[in-house]
Every structure is written in structure tokens, then in C-alpha cells.
What does this fold into?
Amino acid sequence: MVRLFESCELPYERWTHRAHLAVAASYLQHYPHPQALERVRANIQKYNVACGDPKGYHETITVLFMKLVAREMTGNANLHDIVNGLNDRCKVSWLLEYYSEALLWSAEARATFVEPDRKPLDFLDFL
It folds into this structure.
């Protein structure tokens, strides 16, 4: 799946929340966090452009989910369990506890990481 994603051959309907998490976990398994984040950032943007969604990338969501996946990978669980567990527990909607809709979906939050405006991020609150 990662190869298909990177080559922009993955059908867009298969680019689901679970697929995003799987790519994040795969990158974090092979690269240090900063490199994995840069890779996922660049490849999502490239993939979105290739699929006709050039404005689909969201920096704040990407950064937060990369941190979340990295946190989960500190244990002994396998990638499949990590991805499935996060997919079941953490949909994008959990961010609305921390961010107002106006801020989360703003152009600023899409382009750069922004801090929440409702309450501080504390990953222990929702895991």
C-alpha cells in the first residue's frame, strides 16, 4: 500500500483514515520522527495533487496524528494492531474537543501547525 501511495497509484477511494495511519506507522518504523513527518507531508501533498485534490493537505492534523502514531509505537504492539487501534479510537473528530471548527478548518491550520483554541493538547485525555 505504501508503494502504491508513494507512486500515486493508490485509488483515491482507498486513501482512508486507516490508510493515512498505516503510512504514518510505516514511515515511523523506518525513519526518525522528523524524517517520517517530512516524508508523509511531502507524499500526501504529491498524492493529493495527482488525485485532483491539491488543497486537501492539512498540516495541523498531519502533525498531530504523526505524534499520536509515534506515541503508540513506543510499545511492543505490531503495526497492524497500532493502526487498527488508532483507527477505532481516534477519528479526526476528536480534535474538535481541542479546536473550534473555525480554527481547525481554517487556511492557517491547513498550511501550518496551530495550537488548539479550546484546551491544551494532552494525549492522555483521549487515549
